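If your schedule permits, I should be very grateful for your opinion on a structural question. The matter concerns a single protein, recorded as an amino acid sequence and a row of backbone structure tokens. Could you please explain, in whatever detail you think fit, how the structure tokens follow from the sequence? I set the record out below, with my sincere thanks for your time.

——
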Amino acid sequence: MKRTIFITGTGTGAGKTVLTALLAGFFRGHGLRVAALKPVCSGGREDARILRAALGGALTLDEINPWHYRAALAPLLAARKERKQARLAPVLAQLRKVGRDFDVVLIEGAGGLLSPLGAGFNSRDLIAALDAAPVVVAPNQLGVVNHILLTLEALPAAFRARSRVVLMTPPRPDSATASNARLLKELSIQPVCRLPWLGADFSPGAVLREPRVWRSLTALVAD
């Protein structure tokens, strides 16, 4: 059965692309056919290029990222500057078309869960329409517990129950980094996975050779 996982986050720069690239390598390491897609992006296509490299070139850049805009703004606003617009139906059709021949389809959103991706839709709408399992990525720092709770609360109840949370360790941990996962567990938010700081120019292949990363990803995708 095809597995569709949607990687969203508490905001821009949370670590969605890093996690998506790692998951692509993880599933490929298990012999599965994997698609990693970022249908809409703005402010450059570097994220899509990282995903293409993680797939070993299995998909073209335009298959991974069909809607892209130059301005570093929410995609809805960036598209308006170019007199363009992404719409829900074509985006869903493209995702289904590209993903149909794969065992696992990873879809990365842009910005946070409710950031507008196009005319009248956001990542939450894609999650619901694709019946995808949500993964919420967040920087493991002071204040993030509130951001995670708000993001989970914004998901439909059925998808909230299937969601996973990933805390990404920042380069400089703060006073809350060590305790956030424990607090989330006390609040009945689980499973919560933690990933270490991987460096600014990380290599997914090298990182996946680290046992603690492999164990974290194994726990993340366990049914």
